[in-house]
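FORM 7B: Structural annotation worksheet

SECTION A. Query
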Amino acid sequence: MSASMKMRLSHILRLVLFGLITHSCYVQAKSKHVAISLDAKWSSTPLLLEASEFLAQESSDYFWTFVQDISNLNPNGLHGETDQSIYNTILKYASRVLSPVQMNLLKFSLSLRMYSPTVQMFQQIAEDDDVPEKCGSFISVHGEITCDPHKLSSLVQTAKDRPKPAVYKFDHFFPGAVSDDVIVILYAELGTASFTQFHATLAKMTGNKEITYILRHFIQNPSPKKARLSGYGIELAIKSTEYKAKDDTKVEGEGTEGFHSDSTEEDIQGFVFAKLREIHPDKKNDLKDFRNHLIDSTTELPTLKVWQLQDLSIQAGQRVISAPPDDALRVLRDISQNFPTQARSLVRVKVDNDFKMEMERNQQMFENNHGVMPGESALFVNGLQINMDVYDIFALIEAMKSEAKILEGLHSLGFKGDDVPKLLSIDLKGSDDTKYALDIRHTAVQFVNDLENDKKYMGWPNSLQDFLRPTFPGMLRHIRKNIFHLIFIVNPAEKQSRELIRMAEAFLVHKAPIRLGLVLAVNSNESEDEKSEAGEAFAKAFNFIKVDESAAKALSFITDVYEKYDDDVLTAESVKAEFKNQYPGEDLNIVFGKESDYDDVMKAGSDYISQSGLDNLPQVLMNGIPLKKKFLSQDLFEEGVVSEILAATTDIQQAVYKGHLHDGLTVLDWLMERDNVLPRLSSRVLSPSKITLDITENIDDEILHDPDTFSHLPARDKTSVIAGNLKYLARKEEETLHPVTMWVVADLDSVEGRQHMYNAIKQLKHSGDMRLSVVFNPVSSDGENKINKAVNAALNVLVGNNARNFITKLVKEETVEELKSGEKTMEDLAVHGMDIKAYLSALEKQSDKFLQSHQVFAQQVLGFQPGDRGVVTNGKVLGPLRDGENFTTDDFALLEKFIYSQFAKKISDQIKTLGHKGTKGSELSLKVGALLTAKSQSESRKKVIFGSDKHSVVKIPADETAPAFFIEAIVDPVSRDAQKLASLLEVLREVTNVEIKLYLNSKDKLSEMPLKSFYRCVLEPEVNFNDDGSYTSGPYARFNDLPQKTLLTVIMEPPESWLVQAVRSPYDLDNILLEEVDVAVTAEFELEYILLEGHCYDANSMQPPRGLQFTLGTNRSDTLMDTIVMANLGYFQLKANPGVWLLKLREGRSLEIYDIESHEFTDTPPGSNDLVVAIGGFKSKIIRVKVAKKSDKQGEQLLQDGDDSPGLWDSLSSSITGSVTDGDQDNTLNIFSLASGHLYERLLRIMMLSVLKQTKSKVKFWFLKNYLSPTFKDFIPYMAKEHGFEYELVQYKWPRWLNQQKEKQRVIWGYKILFLDVLFPLDVKKIIFVDADQIVRADLQELHDLDLGGAPYGYTPFCSSRKEMDGFRFWKSGYWASHLAGRKYHISALYVVDLKRFRRVAAGDRLRGQYQGLSQDPNSLSNLDQDLPNNMIHQVAIKSLPQEWLWCETWCSDEEKTVAKTIDLCNNPLTKEPKLKAAMRIVPEWKEYDYKIKVLWDKIYGTNTRLQTEYDPSTFEDSSSEKDKSEKEEL
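SECTION B. Predicted structure
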């Protein structure tokens, strides 16, 4: 800034500040703020342990290296260090194994406490294992526990007599553990003296092959502090004040403990005060006053005119793009997160025409190419699209960790700049999920029908264009074309083939639009067992009848044999007898004799099966693709075939539409020439590789000849050393780029190893795309290894054809025999042009060291045992092969084609375009291919397609000298997505090296404020410390400079899997008004549970078992939580905390009728019969469970009239007083209600007293916990004790698959109606919902006992007696009048639900289904809790309750009030009267109820709320004590 500008600004400031001298009142207002934090439910875990878990996820080697480094330190010295010193120690030792990018992600992960749940999970396992008292560390040896190291030896010696402990896939196994006989588990805290002592002993015993050593974290003295969390958002939404819904009772005892007073300053009307203080350090006080004045003048929200709203989004975009690139994200954050106070200044922003025009051109391209409309957002990280609807920073970090390996690998290989996104953009999506087909054009396939030529199909249309005609969903198209070919590969004599052949005939008889074929898989050898003879007889009979009549008749003959000998074991004589019966004049010897001419079908079938690689027969192919085994049963076969046809129909329609497939082509040829068709289907080749090597490191190749050093290298370094030393064989001598690189892993001194290599060389001679080398895996590295050494010398000395031809000779079996016998010497094997002397010299000089290193690599990296065979192709490990398993030349050919078509061709083509050829190109194709395919890519990478980026795109460059993430974001600067995205991108810039392109996507012609909330994203890039080296209190959300007179409500936005609740705050977080606050509004939230979700299906019907109940518990406690399965997707959810949990069927009808048959995505240890689920992270765990009815319960249903089974119900409850005994529920009046905000909680307590006063029944209240304040949850136990009722707090997380509501009030409405079937236990038969703002004047037992006439619920209709409100009765006209067709529109303030009937008719599932459809339109379901049941009145009947059950002054006449059984304080759209005022005016007894509660409150908390009443309590204060006493006795 120039000197003149400084002087001018200084002058302006003096003039402004002169007018502010007398204005000091705003200083106090300015300091008011809102501060909110979130802690975990568990104790804060040591960062040292969390860091170890980060390393463990990267590599087991990294974990144990880190553990060893820490154990080498002085534990006493470590114990006395400050938090910051320990943190620096973590970084020091982690940096020894992690790259710079990984180190940055480690720091970010520690700041997020990302691995705290993992450490806590191990802590829970330890505590479940009977922790010995006063033990810092302890070991468990097959169930025997001790913390005395001297007892270890004796426990190990006796361990085999005890059962082995459960071990999990996430356990930490010490390297080299090979003894499964004895498992020793150490529970200890890394860095302590007791850990170091145990670890040294256990590591030594593992090295001696005595034990398997497992380490689990255990903290003897957990921290008294809770783990402070981040990675979530908080919204302060502006509330409507149309109806006053705020309690005026003042908060007593405000507090702001635990929060820092510092804050990050935002811009104020364009002034950046941090920079101004740097420029004018002598005017700090003046600047402070000026800032306060600006805050005062800007924070109160303006009312903008419609014409001012129209361009706000574009004006916001202009302000962002006008900022310097380094400042653009901060400007975006300030605008989006403080938009209500920023709007006024945005109105004055002038929009540049170039900016607007470019953005509009880009928007057209966004819509056409990405489906992103103006005002919408999208985020891409390295081309992978991130779901903006589900904000989960933990999932993003997992993705970035995976991407970091790719970026660093490409950087290490020399790719920089634009080359990196070009390689990343290669489409490798779904390569592991491709359905591969077998070529079915073979003489072995005996087609039994021909849709194009058989007469019975002549009436069908015969053009492929008919495939484009619409049809009903699920229906097959009957077209006279051989499009779908169903091939049955069967042995007719085998029992498992019988049903398949019968179904083939059924398809034929019923004229299914499928061409049917048989391959008779009959063993034609000399075997004489009955099955083989019968199969051979079937094949010969089939061949004869096919030649004599037709293949269809031959198929019919087979089923005729089945009919006659249905349950018998089929023999050749059975077949011959039926043949003689049908063809009496034929000579059986000619047909069935050993010299029969009718064996060609059998021989062709045998050849085809051998060539195809198929095993585990019978098999059925659809257009060459094998059907899943589960479909090869009578019950599921038709379903499987139809689903495969429907899945293939889309591809065929697209091919017909685009002209790729037309009537001039033979469909079968077109199908069999597609990329997914292979000559052979080997499960060994086509199964996804479990290991993909990382070959991106650059390590000194000479280390290969130093086996000791080599053995201690990390796996990645070992791989790079091996790769750097390998020499290759190829078909031709000229240097060319080979897309496919194969390493044969074998011991060439074994017969099987040599055959393996020979088969590979045979394939090499026919391939120009492949190169070949050897990884030697000798049985013993210090043996003679004559052939291994000879081949290695040849690879290193010879080149081109000489090397290939000489090695071919070396691995031939006859050559080896001749060498062994002495008939030939190495000189005799020399090929033309070979320098035999140089070769023999090299052979003589070879030591065993290279073999030792190769063997170590095979064992430690590939996971092979000495002597095992396998193949590594472009980094993907296949094997080890089984003993006797022959990997043929055809298998090598298939493997080459598979890898080439799957990814090698695409990658090598891109490598060529980048200018790399020859050997270097081959090396890069190998390394890049392994790198990019190490993890299956579930979606294609995308690059944002745009028109221009000069005027409307923010470009923030990365450091080109280091690996960089490429982030592209399309965003509307005044959208909810922008609120989250701005903070996220800012933090990512601090965390790691990123290149950011921000495409502004503003929406024009706005008609309302686009954002009506303030927002904070709680994220910190690194752990922070105080000056003394201790941890700060941790991250929290702080809102400064808020409007003082605007009503605000707190909305937490945690990740989808978190269940959070407010645990400490005296303030009404639903109604924040800062002008009534002295200093600040503070609140502490808690992560109460992490969600466990699942989907459950009946294994037989494949339908959800609606009403099935699961329990979740531990070994110590069988049931801590339980839940009910919905019909919608078979969904269920359970609440859990970090730990290992057992999922079981709940005792009662669920356990009586069902068994758990199978499960997926669980953590069940091998061999265990339990269903084990581990919660070890912040992300939700989603499992799948299949159940099956017990054999004697097939006809029974879960939900039935006589289901009176009692049971525990803790799944959705978190607090309960009293106990419920069997049979009690029928006599209990169950009342359900919900409230949010102190006013409605005050009304709710009054409603409860009114219910209790009017009934003599036992009462149990059920409250939705999600929105209750800490004060209500704290007070309710005292109230329950005082007034003698029971209660439970129920909780349910809105399922992610169910359309989410954005507004808090609409979410609450949704909870009133959408989850009634899963909120309450099955033994609650009826529930009555009563709105919080009601007063009950009658016994609700009467409503409970009311006959609902078969309806699942009963509602009270809206009154129609107050005529002046007719203009507001929307249901009397338009859609509602037509839809209701004379029925009444019902109010949701009071309703009774017959839960048994509700569940039996699937009312909840129907309501959710209808809601899912209607809620897609934001204008539908205006009053969600009322509109939905009224909309569904034709599908889910409503019993209209008598009118007197609900009186509301707004809708009902004064005359009806005298008979009212409940009074509802409805809002009045005419008068807008506040709730409290209406309550005191309409309901005389309301004041007395209210005062009684205040008396109890003051008694408990020592407050004086009685002095804050809005009424005069003297009229009933004197008699309140006597009345309380008598009422209590009556109750």
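SECTION C. Observations
The chain has a mean pLDDT of 87. The chain is about 40% helix and 15% strand.

SECTION D. Sign-off
Analyst initials: ____
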